[in-house]
Design a protein that fits this description.
heterodimer, A: alpha/beta, Glucose Oxidase, domain 1, eight-stranded parallel beta sheet, seven-stranded mixed β-barrel, B: mainly alpha, 2 domains, about 30% helix, globular
């Protein structure tokens, strides 16, 4: 989640607001929303004060002027280094020293974070779950939907495990679908809580086909999948959940994170998908994000994809034969054989994507997914090898 | 980048619109922009057809409803009569009865005009309870527009009073003052020209 350093005053509780210029305020103002109104000069500060005293109490002053912020008697946000952008949906509170940018229209990837709880405990989890009650995030997600002034092409929901929100997940999805009728949605979920067909019906009935469910599957059999997600019974539950998703016409993308035990069995996993789950819309093979539990399990997760080219080609060939579309995500092009480049996608969220020094002169940099910003060349197995020329075969 | 593309598409939309106007001119058709058409003009904030409220004004002037030109072309008078929009507002006259012309009474300035109206809706109680839930969406939009005008006035340095979506006396005065400072007819009406000068977009 993108953070912008700010100092706030008078904002006791975490508050969601839309950043807006004084000029466009009149076209955007609604009584049930909150607005961070940017004051570019002292005159603008006065105008905002007048608007507030004329009844617009849901305006928060946004300024870079420390003196103006100190003198302001009500809620204020002082930008200290980076700037917020008009249309940003942010969360601010006095106890935070930054504004969480929950939505920025110009970003390539949009994600709404729904919970940090999870019912799995994957070996390579990039964002280890916590147990505390964070159900307030569901309400915040609804607020985000209401505060977004423009609808992006695609928006993802992630966690944690979103299905742990129970009936609140449907409320969140319905609000977004209602407010943003042209947007497509992705839900990152392990699908386990959709194993029960009654629960599945409650959540999925009448949901439409604008949502893609992105479900991880790590093995062709329980001993492998359950080991990777560190949860007995998960394989059966996820499969049952996949079948329920299919029953309600929901598009599914399977997500396979490429760690050692998965790569060792990739051929069988791809065969399993081709034979048993032919309704899958797409399979995404994803390089592992070197953070979180992945750092704690380097012997299983820290691999150089170059050494696994044969497995990748084999798996993708099997899927192609079964007519299940597949893509490769998060992998820099130089880690893949050139024959697999057409599968590669630029998939890393812009706020956590980076390139190594060597990449500066690489001729395919613009097509490349790059690296996660927490990747350390010196420490991780995956090395960068800049591409200097392409031989067309 | 996508932001740039968005604004570019607005620009393109604007130019193609201007071109259409030029073509219309060449064909000798009546062109609403003919007086201020220039080759690179962008789309104004509001087109005449956007503003269904240009005709709303103080009820002292029912007689002139048919006479003013801006934006009234696509305005069709709805047949419903009007309900009082806000708890805090009370109709100017205790003997109030719903007028035939919609919107004309409650947003007008108080005082001056009670006599000229005839009671045309005998089936309706003379005092209407201000229940927010049965608002006509058009009335909601009108309140929203007035709210925007009030905000625009404050931002331009005028004093329309409380931002309540009601065209009260103070708002009307501020609007007239703004109009006279901007070489617009100081009639206190939310004409398309006035809205564009205020930087107010008509709610869709």
């Amino acid at each position: 989640m993108r953070k912008v350093r700010v100092q706030t005053q008078g904002i006791e509780y975490r508050t969601v607001a839309r950043v807006v210029s004084l000029e466009s305020l009149s076209a955007q103002w609604q009584p049930e929303l909150r607005f961070l109104v940017r004051a570019v000069d002292a005159r603008a500060v006065t105008k905002i004060a007048q608007l507030r005293s004329a009844g617009l109490t849901n305006l928060i002053l946004l300024t870079t002027n420390r003196d103006a912020a100190v003198q302001w008697q009500a809620e204020t946000v002082l930008e200290t280094a980076d700037m917020l952008i008009d249309g940003d949906v942010v969360a601010v509170a006095d106890h935070m020293n930054h504004a969480h940018v929950l939505f920025r229209y110009t970003d390539q990837h949009h994600t709404v974070f729904l919970t940090n709880r999870c019912n799995s405990y994957c070996l390579m989890c990039s964002q280890p779950p916590t147990k505390h009650d964070d159900s307030w995030l569901a309400d915040e997600a609804v607020q985000v939907a209401n505060h977004m002034a423009s609808s992006p092409h695609t928006l993802g929901f992630s966690g944690g495990e979103p299905l742990l929100l129970g009936k609140h997940l449907r409320r969140v999805l319905d609000t977004f679908a209602h407010r943003h009728p042209s947007t497509r949605f992705d839900v990152l979920s392990n699908g386990r809580l959709l194993a029960d067909s009654g629960d599945a019906k409650h959540l999925l009935h009448g949901l439409g086909e604008r949502i893609t469910w992105m479900v991880p599957l790590y093995g062709h059999a329980d001993f492998l999948h359950d080991f990777v997600v560190q949860s007995p019974g998960a394989f059966e539950e996820t499969l049952s959940g996949l079948l329920n998703l299919h029953r309600f016409g929901q598009p599914i993308q399977l997500r396979i994170v490429l760690i050692r035990p998965v790569l060792e069995n990739l051929a069988r996993l791809c065969e399993f998908i081709g034979r048993n789950l032919p309704f899958i819309r797409e399979v995404a093979l994803m390089a592992c994000e070197p953070i979180g539990f992945a750092l704690a399990n380097p012997e299983l997760t820290d691999i150089d994809l170059r050494e696994w080219s044969a497995e990748l080609i084999g798996g993708l060939t099997t899927l192609k034969r079964a007519k299940v579309p597949a893509i490769l995500m998060n992998a820099p092009l130089c880690a893949l054989p050139q024959t697999l480049w057409p599968y590669a996608h630029k998939s890393i969220s812009d706020w956590k994507r980076t390139f190594a020094e060597d990449c500066a002169t690489c001729i395919v940099k613009t097509e490349c997914a790059g690296l996660f910003s927490w990747h350390r060349q010196s420490r991780h197995a995956m090395k960068i090898q800049k591409i200097e020329g392409i031989i067309n075969v | 980048m996508s932001k740039f593309i968005t604004s570019l598409s607005v620009f393109v939309a604007g130019t193609s619109l201007a071109n259409t106007d030029v073509q219309a001119l060449e064909q000798g058709l009546d062109n609403p922009f003919s007086s201020r058409l220039d080759p690179v003009s962008l789309r104004p904030l509001n087109m005449p057809g956007d503003n269904l409220y240009a005709a709303h004004r103080s009820h002292s002037s029912h007689s002139s409803h048919s006479s003013h030109s801006s934006g009234s072309g696509s305005y069709s008078a709805p047949s419903r009569s009007y309900t009082v929009p806000s708890e805090s507002y009370s109709p100017p006259s205790p003997a109030y009865s719903a007028p035939k012309t919609p919107y004309s009474t409650n947003f007008g300035s108080s005082g001056s005009t009670t006599g000229s109206r005839s009671s045309v809706d005998p089936g309706r109680p003379s005092t209407v309870s201000p229940a927010g839930s049965d608002f006509d969406p058009k009335e909601k939009k009108l309140m929203e527009l007035i709210r925007r005008v009030q905000m625009g006035l404050i931002i331009k340095g005028y004093e329309p009073g409380t931002i309540d979506g009601v065209m009260g006396e103070q708002t009307r005065l501020a609007l007239k003052l703004f109009q006279s400072h901007n070489r617009l007819p100081a009639d206190g009406m939310m004409s398309t020209q006035t809205l564009n000068a205020l930087g107010v977009i008509v709610p869709k």
